[in-house]
TrEMBL record, chains A, B, C, D:
This is Transcriptional regulator. GO terms for molecular function: DNA binding; metal ion binding. Keywords: Copper. It comes from the Bacteria. The keyword Iron does not apply. Belongs to the CsoR family. InterPro entries: Metal_Tscrpt_repr, Metal_Tscrpt_repr_sf. Pfam families: Trns_repr_metal. GO terms for biological process: negative regulation of DNA-templated transcription. The keyword Mitochondrion does not apply.
Length: 98, 98, 98, 98
């Protein structure tokens, strides 16, 4: 990943929100490997399910960070610009993502 | 991961279910990296949220595989053995994981 | 509701679970009327949404009561009888209801 | 319910959205009575759970109607007025109601 790939284009997601999401995603990558390991080691199903639930909760955290950024930036700008399609887009997002 | 680490201990999760879960988890690991890349590339929030939703759906698939195995093996055995605690454990699992 | 309508047929749901569910459902009926009243009175959307969320939580409680009874009675009996279809039925129930 | 009780105050929820929600709520009241009847009649747990799931889906419909109205009216107005608290309120609503 070069500077030019990561740098200037961060227009939609604010830098702090992006950094927060990237830190969470790195941790999630590790948690997914943890679930893989637990299954390989033959751990009790309930422990595996608990760990999967933790990954899902962590992903909800990323989703929430990106959603808040989306509301504060994209949705807010679109409403101020009287974009007639923003409410449809928003409803679609809300009922697909938590 | 050596044979001895992965082999015999797979007592709780049946081999086919474990293999199915491991294949899904490998794909999920790649999807998490995909979300990371999208955020770094400054992609539109809605596209990022869509991709996160795909990861969550894929994780639900793993959870479902492990849960079915848990019901078919652990819960079934416990009920046949008249384990008095199995319904409490099951309810706890069901209302933590979906 | 006469004795004959309510009496003997309570075979699937245990009397205590049925009574618990019926008390909750009577309360839920009142809560639904409460939401109707709030909308008629022109109350703030967030207050209406909060009240709808309360009804949903109360319904989850009924669902949980009936599900626990289903697991303890129907699923337990079916597993002891080696019913080959019970795991399919259970998975279908779990992924349709919370 | 008199004219004066229902009429002018419908400021937050638009008349068409309120009418839509009220029709749905009347149907939901009937569905709740249906669940009560099924439990009294000793119906199979899975049928009761299916009916409860239908009520929950119907309530989600009301919630969605009120949420869309909230976004189109209250949130839109607040954003145009630069209300600094609207994003916090919205996030709170979204993560309590789906």
């Amino acid at each position: 990943m070069t500077e030019s790939e990561t740098g200037q284009q961060r227009q939609f997601i604010a830098p702090e929100a992006a950094d927060d999401a990237l830190v969470r995603l790195a941790k999630i990558g590790g948690q997914v490997q943890g679930v893989t390991r637990m299954i390989r080691e033959g751990r009790y199903c309930v422990d595996v399910l608990d760990q999967i639930a933790s990954v899902q909760k962590a992903l909800d955290g990323v989703s929430r960070t990106v959603l808040r950024n989306y509301l504060e930036r994209c949705v807010t700008d679109a409403i101020k610009d009287d974009d007639p399609l923003i409410h449809d887009e928003l409803m679609k997002v809300l009922f697909r993502h938590r």
